[in-house]
Amino acid sequence: MNIVDSSGWLEYFAEGSNAEFFAPAIEDTKNLLVPVICIYEVFKKILLQSGVSAAQTHISDMKLGKILEIDESLALSAAKISFDLKLPMADSLILATVRANDATFWTQDEHFKDLDGVKYIEKKY
Q1: Residue (of 67, 69, 65) closest to 26 by Cα position
Q2: The pTM is what?
Q3: What are the tens digits of pLDDT across the range 21-50?
Q4: Best CA proximity match to 42, nearest among 6, 76, 16, 18
Q5: Are the CB atoms for 34 and 97 separated by under 8 Å?
Q6: 2-120 under CATH 3.40.50.1010, yes or no
Q7: Are 82 and 88 a contacting pair, CB within 8 Å?
């Protein structure tokens, strides 16, 4: 199973320089898990940049994967991860979701690059 970080979704939707890196995980919808926090982050960013119609279109694409909700167990696990790794809330929730589902995590966020189960590519600016 695969989970793509919000930055990876945004890169893919923008057809950025790392889009091809994320394509195998995003396009394999049978093995794609989508944390609800990623829906929030991606919708908000696209809404700010391109408006509600574009945001809704891209969220529809994300919903081709299985959406994973936040429950009490996940919230507590994320809080522990945040404490241990000094990560912000959203990143902690995503990583907790990755670990709870024994998924491969696709990201271009450097603070994840040395963690087990992470497929990392450096962000190109």
Answers
A1: 65
A2: 0.96
A3: 999 999 999 999 999 999 999 999 999 999
A4: 6
A5: no
A6: yes
A7: yes
